[in-house]
Amino acid sequence: MKKLLLASAVGALAAGGAFAESHGNSINIGVLLGFTGPIESLTPHMADGAELAMAEVTASGALLGGMSVNPVRADSGCIDNALVQASAERLITSDGVVAIVGADCSGVTRAALENVAMANGIPMISPSATSPAFTQFDSGGLFFRTAPSDARQSQVQADILAERGITSVAVTHTNNDYGLGLANAFVEAFTAQGGTVTAVVPHEEAKGDYSAEVGALAAAGGEALMVFGYVDGGGSVIRTAYDLGAFDQFFIADGMYGDELLEKVGDALEGTVGTVPWAVGEAADRFTAVYEAAGINGASSFVAESYDAAALLMLAAQAAGEATPAGIAANVLNVANAPGEPIYAGELARGLEILAAGGDIDYVGATNVELINFGEAAGTYREYVVQNGEYVTVQFH
User: Fold this and answer.
1) Cis bond leading into 339, ω under 30°?
2) CB under 8 Å to 212, separation ≥6 — which residues?
3) CATH architecture of 150-278+380-396
4) Residue 293 CB-density burial (10 A; 0-12 exposed, 13-18 middle, 19+ buried)
5) For 150-205, what is each residue's pLDDT tens digit?
6) Peptide bond into 338 cis (omega under 30)
7) Is CATH 3.40.50.2300 the classification given to domain 7-149+281-365?
8) How is the chain split into domains, by residue range?
9) For 241, phi and psi rounded to 5 degrees?
């Protein structure tokens, strides 16, 4: 087996308070996502993705001699630090989870990690916390993510603008860690390429009126409006800007992708260009077959990343030979990366069997998984444009 010395992880785990154990012939894994809040339309599909992987492993009977996996859902609220901390504490102290898929939005993920998971030695894999701050954050070997950083997304967006000949933009972002981190990274990338950012205006979620924000953005001018946020806030900003004639070209990021945006914003979204993490090639094709057979919406945002997050936790437990937080944390990188036998979505039983026999795997999964140490992942972005009320792929970056 591959060996990876994780001194920092061992220290954090030894210092932790509560220590979740497996219960009989089953283990509990938390699914900590924003079932309420600004991305509540996306998270049920994300949960389905994570739970699809857990069901696949349970059905295989190959995890640690036949252990089943129980998903335990809890609400992050996406932007509610108090709620996510209470939810994480419940998962650990009451539900006895050995690991957590989540959280989702970057701010609540950081709150749950720093204030709860690290103190209790519980590993977390987020499918969607994309803040660049996680790249350098020292979690003691407990935090991983299957979505790439917004530092990468912002560079992709700057390149897209350059390809389209746009040299000046106004920027608005949701007023949290995700929005601010993405806005800052984009401004740096775009200005480095010679672009001009006329204004950066934050907005709150779920306000009744965004005319003040749109007025400030319109006064600053620009050839297009960059909107970094979620459906409720960012979508309303686009609708308001369109209705007031402030802008007619919009660019958006991953936090807004989904069917609800099309329904909420309507014709104002026509021609909008966006980016979202998206796998291509054999990994994507195999996952499509898996989620279609299961009857879930695997094409929604971060569903594939959620499947991969759950799969990695279970494969790491198998590699450790025990379903404990310490064993899982110490083996995530081992099962995620080469060398080893490639394992795709739908092949979790085969991966478990190889590990049980003492072999190595390289988990490719649904999204071409490649983890770059703790807190970072490689990834591909899909560039799309809204045409006739549908998301149409332009290219992959």
Assistant:
1) yes
2) none
3) 3-Layer(aba) Sandwich (3.40)
4) exposed
5) 999 999 999 999 999 999 999 999 999 899 999 999 999 999 999 999 999 999 98
6) no
7) yes
8) 7-149+281-365, 150-278+380-396
9) -60, -40
